[in-house]
Structure formats: structure tokens, C-alpha cells
């Protein structure tokens, strides 16, 4: 497997996981990729985010994979409150977004985080969500405070 994936990041570990995954799929799942998120997570190299992505893409299920963009944007917009982990974010989003909208919402949050609500310097001036954005409201409040005079 390694020669085919050597140009990607962490090829040794990924080759090991792919080999283990293939073995497990044959030995425990009859050669079929399981559709259950908990079963998917048993596969080597598959965490919760990847399992949720497979559930959405391969099995057309309602799920909310939480990557760095989803985590950041949902917090900034106020879609989550006090979530400290991707799992807490996932639980809050799945409770607040209708199940049939989760796959689309996942992609919207990712794209918004990649191109508008970027990590280091969000493009608030170009964002159509400003009126509802907790992050923008906070940054506006900070910028409208009187500046301290240095002595």
C-alpha cells in the first residue's frame, strides 16, 4: 500500500491503517463497509469525524462531522454554546438542526469557514451572516469602546 500513498502525509501510519481496515472489513463485516457510525469507528484509522462523513456520503444518512471549520464557525455564529470538544459541538448541532438539513448544513459550515469565516482573519465585511453572528457582535463592541489614553 505504501508505494501508492507515499506522497501523502503520514504514509506509514495510513498504510498500516488501510491494511488493518481491509483485513477487518473482510473478517468482521463480510467485505462490506458498515453503515453504522459506531461500527465504522471500530475500523483502524477511522474516528468519529470520518465515520460521520462516510455516513453522509456513502449511506445518505443524517450526521454532522465536526472538523476545525465546523467547530469554529458554529461557535462564532452562536450555533453552539460552550462546546469544548468536537463531540459536544456535534451533539449541540444535531439537536438544533433538523436531521434532513444536517448534510447540507455540514457543507455550508465548512465552506463558510474556508472562505469567509477564516481562522486568523475572518472576512466579516463580506459576510451575510453578520446580523446574527456572535463573533461579529463581540468584535464590534470591542472596536466601539473608547480607547485608553496612554500616559
Description:
It contains 8 helices and no strands. By secondary structure, it is an all-alpha fold. Helix 5 crosses helix 7. 20% of the residues are buried.
Keywords for this entry:
single chain, 151 residues, mainly alpha, 58% helix, elongated
Question: What does the main sheet amount to?
Answer: none
How many helix segments?
8
Average of the residue pLDDT scores: 94
Give unreliable regions as ranges. none
Percentage of residues assigned to helices: 55-70%
Distance between the termini: 66 Å
Order of helices and strands: HHHHHHHH
Content of β-strand: under 5%
* Strand segment count: 0
Which outline best applies?
A: elongated
How are the SSEs ordered, and which strands pair?
Layout: H1 2-5, H2 11-29, H3 37-42, H4 48-59, H5 68-77, H6 86-96, H7 102-115, H8 134-144
Helix pairs in contact: 5-7
Sum this structure up briefly.
This protein is an all-alpha fold and 151 residues long.
